Amino acid sequence: MADDEETASAAARAVCALWWSSGPSQPWCVPGQAGVRVRAYVDIRRAPDGTSTA
């Protein structure tokens, strides 16, 4: 969660650059809660190029 869409997306892109990932989702807000959310699925067992990190 972040205060704005730009920050949330940048944080997700930084994490996605470290591991094999789905990439960041579109930012969304939860009604009644402060901040913006972004979802990304990452496989921490693989590097961004798909090679095994184990």
Polypeptide structure, described:
- The protein has 54 residues and is of the alpha+beta class.
- It has one domain.
- Helix content is 22%, strand content 7%.
- The protein contains one helix and two strands.
- The protein has one helix at residues 5-16, and strands at residues 20-21, 42-43.
- The chain starts with a helix and ends in an 11-residue tail after the last strand.
- The model has no long low-confidence stretch (mean pLDDT 89).
Structurally, how many domains make up the residues? 1
H/E order of the elements?
A: HEE
With strands numbered from the N-terminus, the spatial order across the biggest sheet is: 1-2
Work out the helicity level: 10-25%
Strand content: 5-15%
Q: What is the CA-CA span between the terminal residues?
A: 29 Å
Largest sheet: 2 strands, antiparallel
Mean pLDDT: 89
Shape estimate:
elongated
Ranges where pLDDT stays below 50 over 5 or more residues in a row are none
What structural category arises from helix and sheet content? alpha+beta
Number of helices: 1
- By DSSP, the count of extended strands is 2
- Compute the CA-based radius of gyration: 13 Å
